[in-house]
């Protein structure tokens, strides 16, 4: 049985979950308290992070490397463009969200509000939360700018870049930290992604101590 | 003319410089003080980071996306394995160094000691420096473990993973922060990389205020 060791609100795990679901690869989800690593877990991934995917006997880590591998082994339906320029743009945007958006927004909002509580590391740092709330506006505006020129973030087809962005935004949406009224273009884009069958697994998540807000799983917001 | 906007000791720029040189793509190097971004620079890359590559009329950013693009457009000599499993392992290790090693070591040593001074952001935080000096040992040991099983980091051929690791280590070597005596396997590996023609551009770097140590460009250490 294929297994994904994950944490429900981790955007890196969500990106892999979306990719697996889109490609109809069945996995058993196993929640991992990676901040209290067991020797077993560290043996699976010396980096001590989630996601870790056990697939057909192989143990895989690092979300982008996993998704690229899944794309190469299970090319249908495609999540990467066919030409090098298109793939470049998809990869650039994956890095944009996993690096820049992650540092400026996800780590400032989600990690302060949720991870610190779950990991018993104290209270949110209000300076960080304020900074994250400020920066997300800039990122939503950047997405709007892209979506005014393209149907999807990296071009005219949906790609891994859309899943990467949706993975981060959906985790933040779980704690009601996305202002969907800021941009009609981004709201429409998210509604399209959210209604895909692949998204169902994310909408079913429940995190103890953080009840799911009513709009989170509502396909019409 | 192709141009790379870069900063000499940035490991992300070095990774792209190594890849360009290995594939014999000529570029003009332009130093960018990215921490004082000009409107021109931000127009080239809204992320406000280096490297930015202007190649055949296209403007490219994000080092991993750039290197994957170069690999696809200029496949010879190859820097990625031919099979998906090999490419997965190369990508996993690129992420290991660009993410984990970067956060635990590069940012704690290089950014504290050099970037802070160059950017006039104060003095090194000795707690960070101490932590980085501690963590690099663990990473050198992990590399040793890999190199005991393989000729290169990701397998039996040199890949982008080796360039990524060498990019980080060479920047730290410029400030004498790598203990090459810790591991004969890592030292041999670095000597092999360092003697490649592609490495010459890095060995010629000079950073004002940080004189190049004598061992840095010495191919026999």
Automatic annotation (TrEMBL), chains A, B:
GO process annotations (BP): glutathione metabolic process
Listed CDD domains: GST_C_family, GST_N_family
PROSITE patterns: GST_CTER, GST_NTER
Domain spans labelled GST C-terminal: 83-221
GO MF term set: glutathione transferase activity
GST N-terminal domain segment(s): 1-78
Transmembrane segments: none
Assembly mode: Homodimer.
Name under which the protein is recorded: Glutathione S-transferase
Protein's organism: Allgaiera indica
């Amino acid at each position: 049985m294929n297994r994904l060791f994950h944490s429900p609100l981790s955007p890196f795990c969500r990106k892999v979950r979306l990719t697996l679901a889109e490609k109809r690869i069945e996995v058993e989800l196993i929640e991992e308290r990676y901040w209290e690593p067991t020797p077993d877990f560290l043996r699976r991934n010396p980096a001590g992070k989630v996601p870790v995917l056990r697939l057909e006997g192989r143990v895989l880590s690092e979300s982008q490397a996993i998704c690229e591998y899944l794309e190469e082994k299970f090319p249908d339906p495609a999540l990467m463009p066919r030409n090098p320029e298109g793939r470049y743009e998809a990869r650039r945007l994956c890095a944009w969200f996993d690096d820049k958006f992650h540092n400026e927004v996800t780590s400032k909002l989600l990690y302060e509000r949720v991870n610190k509580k779950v990991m018993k590391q104290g209270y949110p740092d209000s300076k960080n939360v304020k900074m994250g709330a400020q920066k997300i506006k800039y990122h939503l505006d950047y997405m709007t700018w892209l979506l005014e020129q393209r149907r999807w973030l990296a071009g005219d087809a949906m790609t891994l870049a859309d899943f990467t962005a949706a993975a981060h935004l959906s985790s933040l949406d779980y704690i009601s930290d996305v202002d969907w009224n800021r941009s009609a273009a981004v709201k429409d884009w998210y509604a399209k992604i959210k209604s895909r069958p692949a998204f169902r697994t994310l909408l079913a998540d429940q995190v103890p101590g953080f009840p799911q807000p009513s709009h989170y799983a509502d396909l019409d917001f």
